[in-house]
Design brief:
With 335 residues, this protein is an alpha+beta fold. The chain has a domain of 231 residues: HIT-like (HIT family, subunit A). It is built from 6 helices and 15 strands. The strands form 3 sheets. A 10-stranded antiparallel sheet has the order 3-4-7-9-8-13-14-12-11-10, with helices on both faces. A 3-stranded mixed sheet has the order 1-2-15. Strands 5-6 form a two-stranded antiparallel ribbon. A hairpin with an 8-residue loop joins strand 3 and strand 4. The mean pLDDT is 95. Bound molecules: zinc ion (2 copies).
Length: 335
């Protein structure tokens, strides 16, 4: 019997289609696929490769002031939003608009063209996370910015147009409807129970254990009970905190190894699948609060959405989340 499962945090429903369910190993990418680490280390035409840096677009680099770099942040060459200008709101009947003020930056994660988070060292991943944090804090200081979106597209099916490992940071002058919905649902849960819904989910996942993939003192990674697609993973900090921008040093130290562990499992078990990674945090002007809880979502792009998803806002997941978790928990394969 298929099952409709509800995500406790968003109250969204998914169909776990046991009738159509495929085993997790049916999602292993083709063996003739060129894996990220098998690509060349340098591409003469890549704008992020060493020697091709467009310095006029650079926002900052790490280490600062050095000739070389480990990570860099650059302004997107074709930004969705403009940094300079004044925020003007014009609400006139059906025509309501706000000038497109905001930030659209690219975080170049490594000097090597064929590097990928799954295979980086803890120190290298830490440098990436530090840059997320640094730019996150700096952009949050701009009073015109209401919300930050941190994301990564890995692979073509995830929307990446460039192979070179990079993430994007967008600072928006509004809080998007989807984010508002999530905040409101978590606030409703808090009103009803006095608890953070994410802390509640985490406690439940830790006690059940069947969907856990990786764990340390500060973070837990699990396949979501109401996964909207195969191998849909959340990484939650085990200490309640609404904003990523307020993360403490101890948690930072523990984030890189856990992130690497999860991404390495995906890379080795599923043969370098395309995925989106999203870091969700409370809107920039909301203070630390008891109801929202920052986290990282990883969504491999293994099945395609279609008309039903568009028409209903509901997803059909053709895998069993517990089976996906068990598959990823099995010993990681060495490369
Ligand atoms: Zn490159
Ligand atoms: Zn919480």
């Amino acid at each position: 019997m298929p099952e409709l499962r509800q995500n406790l945090a968003t109250r969204e429903w998914v169909i776990i289609s046991s009738e159509r369910a495929r085993r997790p190993n049916a999602y292993i990418e083709a063996s003739d696929r060129i894996l990220t680490h098998e690509r060349p280390e340098h591409d003469a035409h890549c704008p992020f490769c060493l020697g091709n840096e467009e310095l006029d677009l650079e926002v900052c680099r790490y280490p600062e002031g050095s000739q070389g770099w480990d990570t860099r942040v650059v302004r997107n060459k074709y930004p969705a939003l403009a940094e300079a200008g004044t925020l003007v709101r014009n609400f006139n009947g059906v025509e309501r608009y706000i000038t497109g003020i905001g930030y659209h930056e690219v975080l170049v994660e490594h000097t090597l063209h064929n590097a990928t988070l799954a295979l980086m060292t803890d120190e290298e991943i830490r440098a990436v996370v530090d840059m997320y944090l640094r730019r996150g804090r700096e952009i949050s200081d701009d009073p015109r910015v209401e919300h930050l979106v941190f994301f990564k597209n890995h692979g073509e099916r995830a929307g990446a147009s460039l192979v070179h490992p990079h993430s994007q940071i967008i600072g928006l002058p509004i809080v998007p409807g989807d984010i508002r919905h999530r905040i409101e649902e978590s606030r409703r849960f808090f009103d009803d129970t006095g608890q953070c819904v994410f802390c509640t989910m985490l406690a439940d996942e830790l006690s059940r254990g069947e969907r856990l993939i990786a764990l340390n003192d500060h973070f837990a990674a699990f396949v979501l009970y109401a996964s909207s697609s195969p191998f849909h993973i959340w990484i939650l900090p085990r200490t309640h905190r609404a904003s990523f921008m307020h993360i403490d040093e101890d948690s930072l130290i523990h984030l890189a190894p856990l992130l690497r562990d999860v991404l390495f499992r995906l890379y080795t078990h599923l043969n370098d699948p395309d995925y989106n990674l999203i870091l969700r945090s409370t809107p920039t002007k909301e203070p630390e609060n008891g109801y929202f809880h920052w986290y990282i979502a990883i969504v491999p792009r293994l099945s395609r959405s279609a008309g039903f998803e568009l028409g209903s806002g509901m997803w059909i997941n053709p895998t069993i989340p517990e089976e996906c978790a068990a598959f990823l928990r099995d010993g990681a394969v060495a490369l």
